[in-house]
UniProtKB/TrEMBL annotation:
Protein name: Probable phosphoketolase
Domain Xylulose 5-phosphate/Fructose 6-phosphate phosphoketolase N-terminal: 21-385
Pfam families: XFP (PF03894), XFP_C (PF09363), XFP_N (PF09364)
Top-level EC class as recorded in UniProt: lyase
Listed cofactors: thiamine diphosphate
UniProt entry tagged with the keyword Secreted: no
Residue ranges of domain Xylulose 5-phosphate/Fructose 6-phosphate phosphoketolase C-terminal in the record: 600-801
Keywords: Lyase, Thiamine pyrophosphate
Enzyme Commission designation: 4.1.2.-
Organism: Arthrobacter mangrovi
Family recorded in the similarity comment: Belongs to the XFP family.
Lineage of the species this protein comes from: Bacteria, Bacillati, Actinomycetota, Actinomycetes, Micrococcales
Length: 802
């Protein structure tokens, strides 16, 4: 057991006697003063003269209600860090408690180190106050701009998942996660309690959940705060936690509150280190028949808006929903409110906290941990400082040999699984694979040759690939997979989230938050680049023959494309080798969200290894082997495709046209990187107009077979010269439990329909090819009848090759 762990197991009273809790209270008061000042003041930060309306912001924005509780917890954690050297990451779930995070970062000195214009004196305090929720300033919630934060406070529910993701493979870290009782009502947070079933004490750090019950949301009471304590204790125990309750019965008896919370915090930390010590000293193993360890946690009941105004205009505020945002809302126009604000701020006795220049008094400043031990300065909250490049296996060692294009079938996902297996072997502490019970379903099961699925509950003889340690994280919650991965990436590691394409929509909102985080993160020079968030989507819309309509939705791509082009990328590799090349690129990238969509079923391999790598790097290109254009001549028509199934259908259509209309010059263009269709002025990967025109011509018909909803292609290309000649086929919400080719026919992207589209749009064909057009229609009908009679696609289609 380390010295720090031994220190945490000593009796609390003995340890507290070395410094007492007076310093904690001083820090708390200072943080509360700075927090209230941020919400209200634009001038006169130290109240050197009576407050005037001009000292107060015109627009009062922010959330006071949760803030003093956050400051209270932060002050106590700082004491433990200073005494023991324990590494802590502070994660705030109560979304808009941003004043607390900023106030504590300023008190610790980190804020002024990063933002030098916000110094640690009166001038700096004025800047600190004025910038908060102010035009051109900082947000009212924890955000990328906030030192020490990895959890965006704009949307609730993700804090606990982020905390667990942060401590995976960080054995010395404790993530103190404050969970708001409003946040606790969200589906994402409710599912996150299960995370302890995946936390391995041998190699992971620990999460200390602190459920902060202050009773109210914006306008309503919260479920857990009104739940009888016996019932709440049973609920948390059922989730696998040992709750320690701290109740602030008398808001004015702060000494008792400090004492009770300090005792609970010490007890919990001792419990955490005891679990870790027992497992680690036993070599990391636990009997298969045991359940997961029971981890300690704290339930803190404190009044909403604690230490703020008790009443306003004769109505109770402290301890009610009225304290949620701005307790005194008419300060500039109501003299009584202005006077009450001054009394509130003076109640913290700022003259005891700050010297004549506005600096924090030295004896209080000395209470902060040193250097990177400060929670606002910890490298765990700026994960790029800890990030190490992945060691990747050779691309050529896993690329598929292609003798002739389109002749051999390989499962792209199964082939990728072998490559991921080696990544896991080469990076045993910095890479994990996340997924909602679909790793094997998505054909990535080769990874189990190198690792197992993490599982801390009972393991039975019938179970396969379950172990206390492993690099695969499977839980039937897309929210948890996303949250864990975000926490893992933002603290300096790498990972992949594999999922069914239709159900990744469950994390639409979580993706939004992460993309917005990355957008701001990239603009902050002190934030170091982190590994990209990589979605690997399979079991996609075109091959759901046993699941049906509910599993057929390619719309996540459309959702992703709404975000800033600097942070999102979408790839549709057409075969195994291109998927491998795209995956290699994504796992070496930084500060992006990469979406990769590819099928899992055996499919034709089109490109030899080197050609696939070049094609992936270009992102778009002409496939001369598939078309029939002649060197030096413009094509009569362009067949374009993006996605594995659309590519097969487009190549098959081109082959039909080559045989039936040998005089017709067909160009086939395949798109891997969907962003290449963007205008170069709108996306870094976009094509210049001249380059787009070279590929698609300026006046010839374009028939585009696309993986997703067809209107996205129009949206990306509407400014192009030849857009009026563009006709897109894609998913049009026609689906059922049926064969892959019948799905293509239902949505009219099949080879016969694409060939018909060419006949309809090439002026030189038209009525001259009415007979061929009719034969193609007959082929569609025969294929449809075959599926209905035999339950499978015709052999000439199912086994078709180039």
């Amino acid at each position: 057991m380390t010295e720090q762990q031994e220190a945490l197991t000593k009796p609390g009273a003995e340890r507290r006697s070395r410094g007492g809790l007076e310093g904690v209270d001083l820090w708390w008061r200072a943080a509360n003063y700075l927090s209230a000042g941020q919400i209200y003041l634009r001038d006169n930060p130290l109240l050197r003269r009576p407050l005037e309306p001009a000292d107060v912001k015109a627009r009062l924005l922010g959330h006071w209600g949760t803030t003093p509780g956050l400051n209270f917890v932060y002050a106590h954690l700082n004491r433990v860090i200073a005494e023991t050297g324990q590494d802590f990451l502070f994660i705030t779930g109560p979304g808009h408690g941003g004043p607390a995070n900023v106030a504590n970062a300023w008190l610790e000195g980190t804020y002024s180190e990063i933002y030098t214009h916000v110094g640690q004196d009166e001038v700096g305090m004025r800047a600190l106050f004025k910038q908060f929720s102010y035009p051109g300033g900082v947000p009212s919630h924890a955000a990328p701009e906030t030192p020490g934060s990895i959890n965006e406070g704009g949307e609730l529910g993700y804090s606990l998942a982020h905390a667990f993701g942060a401590v995976f493979d960080n054995p010395e870290l404790v993530a103190a996660c404050v969970i708001g009782d409003g946040e606790a009502e969200t589906a994402a947070l409710a599912g996150s309690w299960h995370s302890s079933s995946f936390l391995n004490p041998a190699v992971d750090g620990a999460v200390l959940p602190i459920l902060h019950l202050n009773g109210y949301k914006i306008a309503n009471p919260t479920v857990l705060a009104r739940m009888p304590e016996e019932q709440l204790a049973a609920l948390l125990a059922g989730y696998g936690y040992e709750p320690h309750f701290v109740t602030v019965a008398d808001p004015r008896d702060t000494a008792r509150a400090h004492e009770e919370f300090a005792r609970a915090l010490e007890t919990c930390l001792a419990g955490i280190h005891r679990i870790q010590y027992e497992v680690r000293s036993a070599g990391g193993g636990r009997p298969a028949g045991e359940g997961a360890p029971i981890w300690p946690m704290i339930v803190l009941r404190s009044p909403k808006g604690w230490t703020g105004p008790e009443t306003v205009d004769g109505k109770p505020v402290e301890g009610t929903w009225r304290a949620h945002q701005v307790p005194l809302s008419e300060v500039r126009t109501n003299r009584a409110h202005l006077e009450q604000l001054e009394q509130w701020l003076q109640s913290y006795r700022p003259e005891e906290l700050f010297d004549g220049t506005g600096r924090l008094r030295p004896e209080i400043a000395a209470l902060a941990p040193a250097g990177d031990r400060r929670m606002s300065a910890t490298p765990y909250a700026n994960g790029g400082r800890l990030l190490q490049d992945l060691v990747l296996p050779g691309y050529g060692d896993f690329a598929v040999v292609v003798k002739e294009p389109g002749t051999e079938r390989v499962s792209p996902m199964a082939n990728l699984g072998g490559w991921l297996r080696e990544i896991i072997r080469l990076n045993p502490h910095t890479f994990r694979l996340f997924g909602p019970d679909e790793t094997a379903s998505n054909r990535l099961q080769a990874v189990y040759e190198a690792t197992d699925k993490v599982w801390q509950q009972r393991i039975e003889d019938v179970d396969e690939h379950l172990a206390r340690a492993g690099r695969v994280m499977e839980v039937l919650s897309e929210n948890l997979c996303q949250g864990w991965l975000e926490g893992y990436l933002l603290t300096g590691r790498h990972g992949v989230f594999n999922c069914y394409e239709a159900f990744v929509h469950i994390v639409d909102s979580m993706f939004n938050q992460h993309a917005k985080w990355l957008q701001v993160h990239r603009e902050l020079p002190w934030r170091q680049p982190v590994a990209s968030l990589n979605y690997l989507l399979s079991s996609h819309v075109w091959q759901q023959d046993h699941n049906g309509f509910s599993h057929q939705d390619p719309g996540f791509i459309d959702h992703v494309m709404n975000k800033k082009p600097e942070v999102v990328r979408v790839y549709l590799p057409p075969d195994a080798n291109t998927l491998l090349a795209v995956a290699e690129h994504c796992l070496t990238s930084r500060d992006y969200v990469n979406v990769v969509v590819c099928g899992k079923q055996p499919s034709l391999t089109w490109l030899a290894p080197e050609d696939a790598r070049n094609h992936a790097e270009r992102g778009i290109g002409v496939w001369e082997f598939a078309g029939s254009e002649r060197p030096g001549e413009e094509p009569d028509v362009v067949l374009a495709c993006a996605g594995d199934v659309p590519t097969t259908e487009a190549v098959a259509a081109a082959r039909i046209l080559r045989r039936q209309l040998p005089q017709l010059k067909v160009r086939l263009v395949n798109v891997v990187d969907l962003m290449r269709l963007h205008d170069a002025r709108e996306h870094p990967h976009g094509l210049e107009h001249r380059d787009f025109d070279r590929l698609f011509t300026t006046d010839k018909p374009i028939i585009f077979a696309y993986h997703g909803y067809p209107w996205l292609i129009h949206r990306l290309t509407y400014r192009r010269t030849n857009h009026d000649n563009l006709h897109v086929r894609g998913y049009i919400e026609e689906g059922t439990t049926t064969t892959p080719f019948d799905m293509a026919m239902m949505n009219r992207i099949d080879r016969f329909q694409l060939a018909i589209d060419v006949i309809d749009r090439v002026p030189s064909l038209g009525s001259a090819q009415t007979g061929l057009r009719q034969r193609l229609q007959d082929m569609r009908m025969r294929a449809r009848r075959h599926t209905r009679e035999f339950g499978e696609d015709p052999a000439e289609i199912a086994d078709w090759s180039l």
